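Hi, here's the filled form for the chain we discussed.

Project: internal
Contact: R.S.
Residues: 378
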Amino acid sequence: MKINPHSKSVLCLVAAYWIAFLGHTQSAFAQQTKTLIVKIDQSIAKVEPNMWGVFFEDINFGADGGIYAELIKNRSFEFAKPLMGWSAKGQNEGELLVVNRKEVNDANPRYLQVKRQNSDIEFINEGFKGIGLKKGLRYDFSMMYRMPLPGVRMVLLLKAADNKVIGKTVLYPVQTNGAAWQKITASITATETDPKAKFSIIFQGKGDIDLDMISLFPGDTWKNRPQGLRADMVQMLADMKPGFIRFPGGCIVEGTDLANRYQWKNTIGPIESRKMIMNRWNVEFAHRPAPDYYQTFGLGFLEYFQLAEDLGSEALPILNCGMACQFNTGEVAALDELDPYVQDALDLIEFANGDVNTVWGKKRADLGHPKPFNLKML
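And the returned structure, exactly as it came back:
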């Protein structure tokens, strides 16, 4: 269809009129005062509680060094550098040895052997960029040890950043039988507050002693659970009233490769039997390396389920599906190698929901939680 010149002129005039009219209208509207009223006391529509939740991942020392209340870094000498986090004073060559017993205990192969001869030996732990101590608070110490003959005593010290002693107790370990390990405990009360304190053991007397799982926890853990979570940090999560808690993360589940992936079965059971691995965020950022970042799994799947239960939240566990992080190796499992990943998921459902007569339900009950967790999401 052809448009004659007169019609074109009319159309141009009409378009110019509307552009001018709309511009004037919008300008006038923009100059008006607008009021938005929010009636917070009136509920118009129901919001499902599980539309708001928490995504927890052990990143930026969120678990070890964070919500998991352990204060000792590298408590079982399993870091790539076995004495990372520790320093020593007064020892002679050969008096402090890290021994590997991988053929006996693959999950926790290393331990420290102290051969005490003459002068006192001081063994110091720096904590996670310092050990935060509060005046008047009790701190609970424990360790596994072997001592074939009596003769060694241990002075346990809480030291301020300036090396002032702000807590002290003395242990007299008893002789142990053969190769059997024994647990010993003690408590120390801090006399001052210091966010950058350290923990020290002074070995005195004469003789040999083997040490492992050297641990220090604040006495005010969440719900007073031994070797539990930091109460202040869990309370902050509780105050958010999350409808669900997703754990243990995203990329951390995938790992840098499949060997480094998160495997939930390695995170339950006795603490000393949980096989530690390097945290996937240990080497991720060249400008922000964290060579001391590992997962001890003191915060494992049982503790995650308990946390969700405590918060009144639905548990949303994340499992590896045979894929490592695409930003690292991008490794994937072959189709004929996926059965173990599927079985892990089925076993987790049984661990969470099975009764005590099932294999994994019984394991949950044996760990102190006979009641099922009523898992609904995966």
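Let me know if anything looks off before we file it.
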